[in-house]
Amino acid sequence: MKIIAYPFAGGSAYSYARLAREHAHEWITFDPPGHGSNMRYPLLHSIPEMVTALLEPTLRATAGSPYILFGHSMGAYIALAMLDRLVELGASPPQRLVLSGAAAPHRRALHRHAELPHKEFLEWVANMGGISAEVLAEPQLMELFEPILRADIGAAEAYFDGSQRQYDVPVRVLLGLDDRIALADGLAWADCFVNAPEVHCFAGGHFFLFDEVEKVQSLIA
User: Fold this and answer.
1) Cα separation of 189 and 106, whole Å?
2) Which of 78, 123, 136, 162 has the most crowded Cβ, counting Cβ within 10 A?
3) If you ran DSSP here, which 8-state letter would residue 7 be given?
């Protein structure tokens, strides 16, 4: 089984290395424009733009093979919007859609963290837990990463979709009980599908998936 994985804000093709390691399935991850191996391309500022940029590699990776779509945080919105695009194109659907660490795109509290002043923005990023204190303390590294984080977080926070999908694709939702995302907003993914998704809750904050790798692996595939 192939697992097609889309990164969280500021992430890259290496974001899920800990999940891919010693997993029985093949992980295929992508660098959106402006990330990782695609740093030479301009950053994108919306989820639809990211889906358009990643559509062709996704189609190549999934051709003729069973696969799962997975994304954490921003990646969950890319995975959802990618599923919409694949269905629209008549492509083979995934065996499962796994949405992790994200509020439903119609129930999320409206924030503009990407527009915070420099100090407040870095404090918010640090509290989310996605970047180590060592990296945050390095001005040269943050000069590189801050624009990427702002573009990604802005895209994720602007994404809204209130559609109810009738796809015959099983959906699993993974949530952290100590995440800053309100649990009710995570559970509201049920409104996005005619067939209610499975919901699995974990102890931990926004990046709970790296605290319980084996359990998360088992729920993805």
Assistant:
1) 9
2) 78
3) P
| Distant-in-sequence, close-in-space partners of 136: CB < 8 Å, separation ≥ 6 | 122, 125, 126, 142
Instruction: Give the amino acid at 190.
Output: A
Sign of the CA dihedral with 73 first, then 9, 165, and 209 last: negative
**pLDDT category, 73, cuts 50, 70, 90?**
very high
- Looking up tokens 């999934």, which residue turns up? 62
**How far are the Cα atoms of 15, 141, 177 from residue 6, in angstroms, in the given order?**
9, 23, 22
> C-alpha distances in angstroms, 30 versus 14, 33, 51, 54, 113?
9, 9, 11, 8, 25
pTM attached to this predicted model: 0.94
DSSP single-letter state for residue 92:
P
9-45 per-position pLDDT tens digit = 999 999 999 999 989 999 999 999 999 999 999 999 9
Q: How confident is residue 162, by pLDDT bands cut at 50, 70 and 90?
A: confident
